[in-house]
Amino acid sequence: MSSQLGTVVIGGGTGFLGTALSKHLKRRGYEVLIISRKPGPNRMTWSEMLKNGFPENTTAVVNVAGQNILDPTRRWTEGFKQNVWASRVNTTRYMAQVIQEKDVKPSCFVVSSGVGFYPPSNTVEYSEDGPGGDFDFLSRLCKDWEEAAQLPEDLNVRTVQMRTGVVLGREGGMIQQLIVPFFLGLGGPVGSGTQPMPWIHIRDIVGLYTHAIQNASVTGALNGVAPQLITNKEFAQAFGGALWRPSFIPLPSFVVNGMFGSDRAKVMTEGQKVVPTKALETGYEFKYPDIALAAAEFSKIIYTDEYK
Ligand SMILES: NC(=O)c1ccc[n+]([C@@H]2O[C@H](COP(=O)([O-])OP(=O)(O)OC[C@H]3O[C@@H](n4cnc5c(N)ncnc54)[C@H](OP(=O)(O)O)[C@@H]3O)[C@@H](O)[C@H]2O)c1
Q: How far is ligand 1, taken at its centre, from the CA of residue 28, in Å?
């Protein structure tokens, strides 16, 4: 029997965010169809999507596909940058093309973007109308990614671009990479640690995607960040504190620059103060508004995934 709420199509739904979002939506009664490079049950490949369009009862289309920017095994070459760009912008364009060309239209199209849209600053606070998108590779990537999701107004498909901060959760992303060094007491801030670190707990980014799908008042850019502004050092202290471990061994900026190349190392060595103005204005209630609460959840020794 098909779901009353309809189907949510998720590009990149096999990843960290996509898996959590998919479980959450299924628990709420939606059907989920994943668009992936690999075929499988409840999946379509990108070429099948371009050929066949979306299922009849599609209510929302989401794109969280993207080659991992901070893959330490990949050098920051022109070829890899092209991969990073195409895996976000082209997949978003393909979805926009299907929405325009095929008969089945969702009520909304929600795509990922990043807080790297805004210029790094230790002082300025950015709401969604802050400037950006024009100063380095990652900011231009965000702008192109967001523009790829633009649809003609007469289609009546609401578009939301989620400018996401660092997503904190045990099942993937930064925490999965840092849990062992922090557990061993070898964790600490990156560089001086005074740079802001826009962050959000995995349950809240999933909650915000769902909020964007379900609320017609949410349109355009949406900052996907927690309300509490913290620095990188405050993150390290909260994480170490939740694990009862010291967290004062700094990771020098030159090491991070050497590992990742200074261009992408900026994701860790620099930051912006980003505020979730639109999320709060449209009534979203954060489950993990402060880092101590979030760290207590993703640092639990015996971890049970509540979405299962
Ligand atoms: N995690 C964070 O902290 C964070 C912060 C800000 C923004 N974001 C953005 O949110 C999105 C999801 O993040 P995530 O952490 O869930 O990423 P992830 O775990 O790396 O998963 C992303 C998915 O994208 C697909 N993908 C990877 N490389 C691809 C390529 N070259 N071409 C097409 N598809 C590709 C993969 O699906 P298949 O293998 O099934 O094709 C993968 O499962 C990304 O666009 C990311 O930039 C994430």
A: 23
Whether residue 85 has pLDDT greater than 70: yes
Task: Report which ligand 1 atom has the smallest distance to the Cα of 173.
Answer: 1
How many folded domains does the chain comprise?
Answer: 1
Q: Give the number of the atom of ligand 1 that is nearest the alpha carbon of residue 164.
A: 6
Domain-embedded: residue 245: yes
Mutate to test the pocket of ligand 1, among 33, 64, 174, 205 (most ligand atoms within 8 A of CB): 64
CA–CA distances in Å: residue 47 to residues 99, 286, 290? 14, 37, 42
Cβ(164) – ligand 1 distance below 6 Å: yes
Q: Is residue 20 part of a domain?
A: yes
Does the beta carbon of 172 sit less than 6 angstroms from any atom of ligand 1? yes
Distance 118 CA to ligand 1 centre (A): 20
Confidence of residue 36 (pLDDT cuts 50, 70, 90): very high
* Domain enclosing residue 152, as ranges: 7-298
What number is the average pLDDT over the span 139-150?
Answer: 98
